[in-house]
Amino acid sequence: MRLPHLLSVCLLLSTSFLFAQSAADPEPGPGFSIDNIDKSLDPCVDFYQYACGNWIKNSEIPADRPAWQSFAQLDESNMEIERKILETAAAGGAERSAVDQKIGDMYGSCMDEKRVNAEGITPLKPELARIAAVKDKSALINEIARLHLVGANALFNFYSNSDLHNADAVIASIDQGGLSLPDRDYYVKDDPDKVEMRKHLAEYATELFKLAGQTPQRAAQSADDVLVVETLLAADSMDRTKRRDPKNRDHKMTREDAAALAPEFYLNQYFVAVGAPNFTEINVGNPEFFRQVNGVLAALPLETLKTYATWHLLNSSAPWLSEPFVEANFKLRQALTGQKEIQDRWKRCVHLVDHSLGEALGQRYVEATFGPDEKQRMLKMVDALEQSLDQDIQGLEWMSADTKKQAKVKLEAIRNKIGYPEQWRDYSSVVIKPHDLLGNVQRADEFESKREIAKIGKPLDRKEWGMTPPTVNAYYSPNYNEIVFPAGILQPPFFDKNMDDAVNFGGIGIVIGHELTHGFDDQGRKFDPQGNLRDWWTEQDGKEFEKRVSCVADEYSGFSVVDNMKLNGRLTLGENTADNGGARIALAALERLIAEDKTGKEGESIDGYTPEQRFFLGFARVWCEKQRPEFLRMQVSTNPHSPGRYRVNGVVENMPEFQKAWGCKPGQPMVAENACRVW
Ligand SMILES: [Zn+2]
Known about the structure:
The protein is an alpha+beta fold. The chain has helices at 47-58, 70-91, 98-111, 113-119, 125-132, 137-149, 185-188, 192-211, 216-235, 240-243, 255-261, 267-273, 287-299, 302-317, 323-337, 345-356, 358-369, 372-394, 401-413, 437-454, 501-518, 539-557, 573-596, 611-623, 629-638, 644-652, 656-662, and strands at 9-10, 67-69, 156-163, 166-176, 252-254, 281-284, 415-419, 475-477, 482-486, 560-562, 565-566, 625-627.
């Protein structure tokens, strides 16, 4: 479960695959500095390399990270803050507040590695026994429901979401799912990296089944069974690029029709087992998946399906069991990302608390880090960026007056959330014990799953947040029609109160512009101001839009990232369009600020760079990064965001403003022959 705001688009990563690492020290700090520039290079040849060259030279990917960039650097420093909060909360006695008891004991139970190791697989035994006792396929669906409640992604996904055609109402949704590797392509494609990951998955599964008590031979057979089932699920899953179009996931039907679509899923029984409130309508994200997998479920022996369910229990629990489980789990992650070492336990435990009790930990994090000044400055920048986007849209030559009018209504309806939620989630019903790690994890997951499910049939809670406050990221949600900036991202290099406006507009300004533009990208434009899937464009304007984004798709499809793997311009289209639009409107906002400044201070050069140059340097600084090749391969296959180098160069080569700021000439690499422009 745990799929909040399924349609949200964020700034960095959509999965939790990319977390944590640790800092190596005398390296460049996360802030903006002209020391990061490699002045021996020509900015018009490769701007990213020019702006980040020295940063790249002087930075090392920490052994416990798959990649290293400003997001990761900030994540490291946030983890240090959270660690102090959690250690204090864990040590506190009877005087502790209810919030500190929860986060402190969750962290404490996680840090008690000795006890966890001594217990081995024991804490999981009751759950394993439940699956082992299953006598028929209809009883199995009750166990799938149980797995869903405790956070395991088996067979399919069930969650609540705002109704695509009535955003104010929350409805039940089921969708494809049930895979252990990051994407369906890992099962159905024969690229060398995909074939290799299947082998790694088989090895990992074999190891877990052995640790669970199976003989080596039996364990290998069980792993084969897992691969067989997951490959069948993958074959019937829609690919990521196709899923970008919300129309492909828009299949509302009655509960009875959904149940009849795939009788082998025993959906009516499942809804009761999972504790869903009564409902009559449901959105089926991918009906073909359920239709086809229905046949798979009918054909496969019960024992194979029980093995598959057991696997998902083992896999999702492994990080919170004894060392051999943790190591086996890390080995797959290592194969996928190239990360050399597992993170220190305290970091994994910080992430666990952020994941499971995020708004309790977030409350303490905000008290320690976030003041009203930051919020005020952000609000001012958001205003400036909204004004820029409005002016940009109103000035478009290719858009008709009718569509412009509608776009203005949508833009004005975009809400913003900055820092932290105005209302904190109430975790008082979650039981967290000082010495029961797996139990704590399961109860917290169950609380969250039930909270999600209980929303079905209720009005949409527009106050809710989809990210926790320490998160270094931001998002736009089309059904909420809102932009959200957690406190975690409002720090250098994104936002630095000691820096000039030019650098900040290149940092957080572009981020704000990026999120705003998402409301009008290939996905966002299909939603109206209320968050309903509704076409408000004239046909001609829609065509003009498509023509312009095709240019962007072709541009990025031309970028070769690793071992001749090219970017998927259609998968990354929304993000690339948002990067291009964000940069353009942030620069326009800065230019306005300079023009309106009577003191002339805004227009002054600093360290020999004009405000426009500093704007682009600030932009590049945010994206300076190093990635392990394994991680890049996974990113290209699964991530709708382009790697940093292309997020920078792919944008600036389209911008005459950039070329003017740096004196670039036609024919140079940073001057695109066919510059793309949507916004
Ligand atoms: Zn984005």
